[in-house]
Amino acid sequence: MAIADGEATRVRGATDIVALIGEHTPLKRVGNRFVGRCPFHNEKTASFSVNPVEGLYYCFGCHVSGDAITFIRAIEGLDFPGALERLASKASITLLRSDDSQASSQSRKKRQRLLATMEEAKKWYHQKLLSSQEAGKARDYLRKRGFDGQTVRFFELGWAPDSWDELVRSLKLTESDAAATGLGFKNSRGKLQDTFRNRVLFPICDSSGNTVAFGGRILPQDQSRENGQYVEPKYKNSKETDLYSKRRTLYNLHNAKRSIVQSGFVVICEGYTDVIAFHRSGITQAVATCGTAFSEEHVQGLSTFTRKLILAFDADKAGQSAAASVYSWEKRYELDIYVATLRDGMDPAELGLADPEALVDSVNQAKPYLEFRVERILENLQGTTPEAKSKAARAALEVISGHPDNFVRDQYLIKVADRCAISPDLLRKELPKAGSRNDPRTSSQSTGTQTKHNLGSNGSKESKSLQKIDLSTSIANHEREALRLAIQRPADIADYLDVILFADPTYARIYKVLEESTSLDEAMDSLGPENAGAIVQLSVEESDAEPLDVSCRLIEAAAKRRLVTMEQQVRNSPAADIDEILAETSALRIAIESLRDPYFSERGALELLAFLIQPDEQGNNWTP
Questions:
Q1: Distance of alpha carbon 255 from alpha carbon 155, whole angstroms
Q2: Contacts for 527 with CB less than 8 Å, ≥ 6 apart
Q3: How far apart are CA 127 and CA 549, in angstroms?
Q4: Cys-Cys with 128: which of 159, 240, 436, 461 at CB 3.0–4.6 Å?
Q5: Between helices 520-527 and 7-14, what is the axis angle to 10°?
Q6: 567-616: per-residue pLDDT in tens?
Q7: CA-to-CA dists, residue 389 to 222, 378, 497, angstroms
Q8: More confident residue, 11 or 536
């Protein structure tokens, strides 16, 4: 059921953004701002600024920005409704819904009931592992894997007894709830049966910490074979439900997200025990996929926490990852994807048990994705003959050709040239040929198709904000100061501003949006998520300037630009019109001088602004 319009504004207004952010990083008052170290990236100096009046934050280091809702979304990995719910709960607000129908209310209550059931099941399984006699063999297995009691309790591992229906009976599950949670099913005899039997269980939570599924690992001694094949799979995962989507859920993200934000990277594994091995080695930023391939949905979710992703798959699988997808993800979500090289073909769980320091080193020494792939080829160079070097160079070129950045490609090409003793110029000539053989973009164009990686995140081809705003390319001058004041002290400067005063197109665009909006929230919505940060940045920048002084400087600059235009008109106008234009230019110069007289500056500013914005005889407005 949708949250009613206006509730986001109500929640923002009720949230103390300084207190909220202060839960994650210490803040200190500086003037009318609060500053501290950014909770989204590692830094030694405080570059994170919070505007308590507008309820906005901005980091001058990593350029993240937003309000209370975007902050809690980023820190806790919540979607928009989830963030509203979380902040509303903290502020003791009951959110109004746009649809108060009985069906919608029942749907919400059903979800809450199912989540409560999953939480109860997690505790039930966990207690079985800790105390039941039957689970002794599971405890022995976990000890051999290096899992002590503290680890078992932290990850709330469980044990599903070797019983047909002990869980469904203990929790008194109905058939519908058993199916909706994936905890049970109706067997061929028409009886409710537990989904998991005789397995160690790993609870799977969403990013908010709600238990939504389980992964079950059968004990090695209980794996039976028929005709050389295992009868049951080593791992068995919950089916997908309304609570659980494998392509969107990452194991341990709810525990790891704060470490991910603070460290600036995340480690992605294939298995639950891999995550636990990293955790025991001191790397608490590890997450794992849940029985499915690493997907764009996973990438999109992680991009809210960090810009550096480290793949800790086995070497073959990491090398076989779809390169086109990896490069597309890097570009779309502004990511850097690395690969951790694991020793001797071990998986993280095995390496963590054998040599925890080596597991940590694999992360610290992780290589960019392309470097990893090229190095794998060159390490396997067979012999030193010209034929062997040629073969390796061609294989490396095919890998390099898939990268979208010309400069990056050339850097790796030089490495290959050095290792294979081949002229870089010769390799550069061969690179386009390798690209045509191994470029997924060519094949997609030839078939007239376009992958979803080339569309926006919501499937649209383009947002309404056609060009991204970049304040770093604009000069920090009176125009920027005017925008700061327009955002921070609008009542003091509104009468002295007009879009015609802004010569910088970036500033003019921002001012126009501000002028047409009734609130900062509306202005940020108009600019779109990519550009809203410009307003947030301006709102937290310090400004102690006098509004009248700033507006006078803007009006003076605009008037001087108008003078240049009028002087050009004198040179190009008929003689009959020259006297009139000269009279106007003379009056304009006098008006400009009056701006510097403190007794007449306010009146002069208003009169000169009125002159600048009036249309000409044809009804056209002057443009700077």
A1: 9
A2: 465, 469, 510, 513, 534, 535
A3: 70
A4: 159
A5: 120
A6: 777 666 666 566 677 777 777 787 787 777 666 677 778 888 888 887 65
A7: 49, 9, 68
A8: 11
